[in-house]
Amino acid sequence: MEFRYLGNSGFKISEITYGNWLTHGSQVENDTATACVRAALDAGISTFDTADVYANTAAETVLGEALKGERRQSLEIFTKVFGPTGPKGHNDTGLSRKHIMESIDGSLERLQTDYVDLYRAHRYDFETPLEETMQAFADVVRSGKALYIGVSEWTAEQLRAGHALSKELGFQLISNQPQYSMLWRVIESDVVPASEELGVSQIVWSPIAQGVLTGKYKPGQELPAGTRATDDKGGADMIKRWMSDEYLTGVQKLQPIADEVGLDMAQLAIAWVLQNENVASAIIGASRPEQVASNVAAAGVKLDAEILSKIDDAIGDLAERDPSKTTSPPKREA
After folding, report:
1. Which one from 54, 119, 124, 148 is the annotated catalytic residue?
2. Cα distance between residue 75 and residue 225, in whole Å
3. The dihedral of CA 243, 246, 248, 254: what is its sign?
4. Which CATH architecture describes the domain 3-325?
5. N or C: which end of the chain has fewer CB within 10 A?
6. Is the pTM of the predicted complex or chain greater than 0.90?
7. Within 10 Å of residue 253's Cβ, how many Cβ atoms?
8. Region 147-173: what's the mean pLDDT?
9. Is 124 an active-site residue?
10. Where are the domains of the chain?
């Protein structure tokens, strides 16, 4: 495993982050989830990503149990706030001071830790003044409940505004967590240049496009049983945008490139996002421990310009690049 600095800070995280978005507390049993976390630790992963909204707080509980007994100082534990939790009442969502201050306490209890290394705004909240949100984050940092603050899926304009307020309030905004893969490149034109200017790194999710970039889904063929595309608990909905024969045919063109560099297609996809110097880490998930060990092989891989060009040619116009697709939930109707 290799490690990278996160943003303009002295804080290092593993190039591969283990995340439990669609798995822990929902798609896989707790024993399997724990085995995946153990596999991540064995592979050298020290960075773990979750959110209170995942499985309505159950994912945090599972992760906390799985990491219990580990040396806390050797781990980087991240969680997020924004989405509806609990009974999903009128103050159980968003980035109000009330929701942030209550949510951090709940997350720490479930994760069985006194602090998180990185606490993030899971989306931008159009309903709460940004000043209120950032002041609450500043107080979370000053209380020692979080060491650093980040965001997720914020536009370049939102990052600039949040970063300016964080400086005024005396803390660092050091990370953004966007979707990023060979097929989803919407951050490249606006978000990445702004982040480089501000000293913000990307921790990217879905580097294998919900599993599509593994090549296991073949055009015109029946979906493999037990895969995300057949999951009726939310997985199939998340992956459906990629499941047309056009996308699946384009993805199959990556197989010879993966063979050329001695990687499987999932490893190639993860290595590809790590070639972006603004990316500090790629988040992987797993439903089986062996998937973790395989994906970690992407850490430290260097792809030369010729290989990167071949990947661009193979994907072609299938890659989504429109920066307007970096979106947060819309403003709620009055």
Report:
1. 54
2. 35
3. negative
4. Alpha-Beta Barrel (3.20)
5. C
6. yes
7. 16
8. 97
9. no
10. 3-325
